[in-house]
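Team,

Forwarding the record for the chain on the shared tracking sheet. I've put the sequence and predicted structure together so nobody has to dig through attachments.
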Amino acid sequence: MFDVFFTHVNEKVSLTIAEQEQLKTFFLPKKLRKKQYLLQEDDVCRYMAFVEKGLLRSYNVDDRGNEHMLQFAWEGWWIADTYSFLSEEPAAYNIDAIEDAELLLLSLPQFEEMTLQIPKMERYFRILFQNNIIAKERRLISSITYSAEEKYLRLSASNPELVQRIPQHLIASYLGITPETLSRIRKNLLHRQ
């Protein structure tokens, strides 16, 4: 169950076999069925989740019932409401499974203990948090700078397999456009080929 996790960690820090065995003790394996929640808005986020298998999403629902996609997480990605996780205050968004998923859950007390016992993991998470800040800044710039078509083309170029796995209405929400606009963009791109 830890294959994807250790591959991902070892891309950033080098772990010994003993450290890998020790790391396993900090995680709680969890399976989610498609459409099952990992976190609901206003609950406290008790776990960061590493995706071993499957696809999850985090999103907010506005007063009119419209979903606004914040993040997708697939094999090798982490997902959580980080603010809620670290502050133990209510979550601002929902996390659920788009596909059946196998997760490794890490609680805040386990996170703290793990980073004390295995200092390499503190470096690993610092790298992840840095990359997360950069990705959020790029997404913000993209949302205010690029046209709907440019946003779709950038997403397709950076994650071609993901665009095939995610329903189009969720991609549209992630890009901040309507499903009709996304359909029109895809149709125009097909005609140009």
